[in-house]
Design goal:
twelve-stranded mixed beta sheet, Rossmann fold
Length: 486
């Protein structure tokens, strides 16, 4: 039953007839196991869903080599054998519970990356992973693997916390805050709810303010429309609950008030070409503060959708866009100001990008969740400053926070949103002492297939007051219709 990496497994044994496949339900489920003591409840959820939804169940375990200057071959062999035993024990446990394992896979390397790779190889529609509950500590940091999957996986991820006996859930809450990017979360959440015989409720949050009641009516109409769509596809009509407030706080409050175990289904944004889920404030809060199982369903970011609008017989483009990468430093803010004025002159949309370096996060170990939350806050602060500059220039601006390698992410996002040019600063440091703009700008310049504008670091040093004024006037006098390149 065991396979390694791409080798898969031997011919599967005859399997008992499964439940009839349900509309909207994933055809293949991948359970990521880290041993029975850490994945018992997650495995139970996987068996339960596969049986009731008529899906194939696959299992993967990733082992990691521990670097050692002595007897490395012996250590490697022992760790691999231990991983093999862990996988076999998990498969045996599933079969004892009456489940059927279609494929079992042993992989070596970074856990998050290898799990995603395995999901891609088998075409998984859902990844299930366990996470150690944080109890009275308020869950400030979830397990590094579960949090990493929630932020990086392009496939839906169900996180089941061990030690919290809330499976099976008796209800499913689908949280809506931005209706353009949570359609799949509703469909998948309702599909799982129907398979489990759980009640499904769509919770839509309208922002407060003077026009709160009008927004509330709009949210209610949108929820009813979504409920119609779900009923048509899944065969179950969810209840709807429009409320006014802050998205994360309101939905977490409703979830906490549930007397029965409930699964919280939430959407996240993903850039197709960039291959990384965007880290958002709402998602971060849900991951760190909610209790019980969480279903995170990535949605295609609107910027990843076709950018060409059909106008009669001419395929006119929706409009130009400019991308500026920021790390919150003074020089990157200078680049942000330049990019805002440039976008104004071009009549373009401005994208403000902050990259959370995944390598820095993986070195944080068990504090991964805390690092994600802290760096995401840094990112929102940095992109918020650029947005303020854009608003002052009368330019439309969208903030993006992406998990990945800075140089590759900048290039991938630029490609995905069709940005030209890319604007960078030459140097900069974040609060985490992580260099983003500097050596990164060199890599972007080397590999970009579009215009890259690099804004100097500290031009004011050593310059007389009169020169500073003339420089400021020159920078502000940007062309209003284009940029001249030599």
């Amino acid at each position: 039953m065991l396979g390694e990496g791409e080798d898969g497994n031997s011919e599967p044994e005859a399997k008992p007839e499964r439940a009839r496949k349900m509309n909207g339900f994933p055809e293949k489920i991948l359970l990521a196991t880290d041993g029975l003591e850490n994945t018992t409840l997650a495995a139970r959820a996987a068996v339960d869903l596969a049986e009731k939804g008529g899906a194939e169940l696959h299992v993967v375990h990733v082992w990691i080599m521990v670097p050692s200057p002595h007897a490395s071959n012996f250590i490697r062999s022992g760790l691999k054998e231990s991983g093999h035993d862990t996988l076999e024990q998990q498969v045996r446990w599933i079969e004892e519970q009456g489940g059927t394992v279609t494929g079992a896979y042993l992989r070596e390397g970074n856990s998050v990356g290898e799990i995603i790779a395995q999901a891609e190889e088998i075409g998984a529609g859902l990844v299930i992973v366990g996470s150690r509950g944080m109890g009275r500590l308020g869950r400030l940091a979830m397990g590094s693997v579960s949090t990493g999957l929630a932020h990086r996986s392009p496939y839906p991820v169900l996180i089941v916390r061990e030690g919290e006996q809330e499976w099976p859930p008796e209800g499913v809450l689908v949280g809506y805050g931005s209706f353009e990017d949570t359609g799949r979360a509703g469909l998948l959440g309702a599909s799982l709810g129907r398979a489990l015989g759980a009640e499904v409720e769509l919770v839509g949050v309208a922002g407060d303010g003077d026009d709160a009641q009008e927004k509330l009516r709009d949210v209610e109409r949108t929820l009813e429309s979504r409920a119609d769509e779900i009923e048509e596809v899944v065969g179950l009509r969810p209840r709807v609950r429009p409320v006014v407030g802050k998205v994360a706080r309101t939905i977490l409050g409703i979830h906490a008030e549930e007397e029965k175990p409930a699964l919280l289904s939430f959407g996240s944004k993903v850039l197709g070409g960039a291959g990384r889920v965007l880290v958002g404030e709402t998602l971060d809060q849900v991951l760190s503060k909610s209790r019980g199982p969480i279903l995170v369903t990535p949605e295609l970011h609107p910027a990843s959708k076709p950018r060409v609008l059909e106008h009669g017989e001419t395929g006119a483009q929706e409009g130009p866009s400019v991308l500026v990468a920021t790390d919150g430093s003074e020089v990157s803010l200078r680049a942000g100001g330049y990019a805002a004025r440039l976008a104004g002159g071009l009549g373009a949309k401005l994208f403000a990008l902050y990259v959370v370096d995944e390598q820095l996060l993986f070195h944080s170990g068990i504090h991964y969740g805390e690092f994600v939350e802290r760096l995401s806050e840094d990112g929102r602060e940095a992109t918020g400053k650029v947005r303020t500059l854009a608003e002052e220039a009368g330019v439309e601006c969208e903030e993006m926070i992406v998990l990945g390698r800075p140089d590759l992410s900048i290039l991938a996002v630029a490609e995905e949103v069709g940005a030209d040019p890319i604007v960078l600063g030459t140097e900069g440091k974040s609060r985490m002492e992580h260099a983003l703009i500097g050596s990164v700008s060199e890599e972007v310049l080397r590999h970009a297939n579009r215009t890259v504008l690099v804004v100097g670091g500290h031009p004011e040093v050593g310059r007389k007051p009169g020169e500073r004024k003339r420089r400021s006037e020159a920078v502000n006098a940007l062309p209003e219709s284009g940029v001249t390149e030599e």
